[in-house]
Write a structure and sequence with these properties.
Number of strands: 8
Order of helices and strands: EEEEEHEHEE
CATH topology: 60s Ribosomal Protein L30, Chain: A
Shape: globular
Distance between the termini: 23 Å
Helix content: 10-25%
Number of helices: 2
Structural class: alpha+beta
């Protein structure tokens, strides 16, 4: 199989830095953009911020939006997301889902899986996405 893989910028303005052996986003044959799991990193403070599940979800999705746009994609072209919650309670799911719906609640929402996970660091929400490039 012959396909090219293009790693996009490891740093994108106002986005969390890649702190390990991964890229913020990778485009591959498709053309698709694979955005790594993002945490609630605040570009203003340069730190991960722990707040409510809704506040963390909003920071995560804003990071994903900036990465998508910084890589030449649009958030509305997201085809798939995986949401990881440190505590998959009904309350946490509903809080995350309300904010998630603000970003992906249109006529063509992406496919999604939501998983309970033991997340590293001081945060409770991580989301990764696959976005179609135009």
């Amino acid at each position: 199989m012959n396909f090219s893989v293009k790693t996009t910028h490891r740093t994108i303005p106002n986005c969390p830095p890649a702190l390990g052996p991964y890229s913020l986003a990778v485009s591959a044959a498709g053309p698709l953009l694979f955005i790594s799991g993002m945490s609630p990193w605040n570009p203003e403070s340069g730190k991960i911020e722990r707040g409510t599940i809704a506040e963390q979800t909003r920071l995560v999705l804003e990071n994903i939006r900036r990465i998508a746009e910084g890589s030449g994609a649009k958030l509305e072209n997201t085809v798939s997301c995986r949401v990881y919650l440190s505590n998959l309670s009904q309350e946490n799911f509903q809080e995350m889902n309300a904010v998630y719906g603000e970003y992906f609640g249109g006529d063509h929402p992406p496919a999604r899986a939501t998983v309970g996970a033991q997340l590293p660091g001081a945060f409770d929400v991580e989301i990764e996405c696959v976005v179609a490039l135009e």
